[in-house]
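STRUCTURE:
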């Protein structure tokens, strides 16, 4: 019997999904190539404009990480051979039928703000107005703000 909202199980499922081989679909391949082409162009621009050194090396290294994370984000959404996909909100694998059912009949816990499901939007607006008023009271007016002077440069002896 599975315990609902078991964080350890959800984490194990996420790890299983993140660290397995993801076979890219044809659509994924097009997206991966587009990311790779634009990343290559930006890398070439960095090499052309940024002087050689630590910053250039870090920019290129981080760009490589950006490309890998984008690729992972694309392929991790690809279905398993049996058609199931990983649902990060639930922390488990779901079948296409379960995905369709969840999309057609969202449960309150699947909606980001369950209060909006009940159609109670006015209360949220009232809370925002109260927060804004409280913030205005605690924030000093521009005329009360201290003046800032530019930094002083030392004079030559």
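SEQUENCE:
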């Amino acid at each position: 019997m599975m315990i609902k909202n078991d964080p350890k199980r959800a984490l194990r499922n996420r790890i299983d999904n993140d660290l397995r081989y993801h076979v890219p679909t044809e659509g994924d391949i097009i997206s991966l190539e587009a990311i790779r082409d634009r990343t290559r162009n930006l890398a070439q621009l960095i090499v052309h404009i940024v002087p050689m050194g630590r910053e250039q090396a870090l920019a290129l290294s981080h760009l490589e990480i950006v490309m890998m994370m984008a690729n992972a984000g694309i392929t991790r959404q690809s279905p398993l051979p049996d058609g199931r996909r990983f649902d990060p909100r639930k922390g488990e694998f779901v079948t296409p039928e379960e995905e369709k059912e969840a999309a057609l009949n969202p449960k309150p816990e699947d909606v980001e703000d369950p209060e909006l499901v009940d159609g109670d939007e006015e209360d949220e607006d009232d809370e925002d107005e109260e927060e804004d008023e409280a913030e205005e009271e605690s924030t000093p007016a521009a005329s009360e703000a201290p003046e800032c002077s530019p930094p002083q440069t030392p004079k030559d002896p």
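REMARK: Residues 89 and 109 are 10 Å apart (CA to CA).
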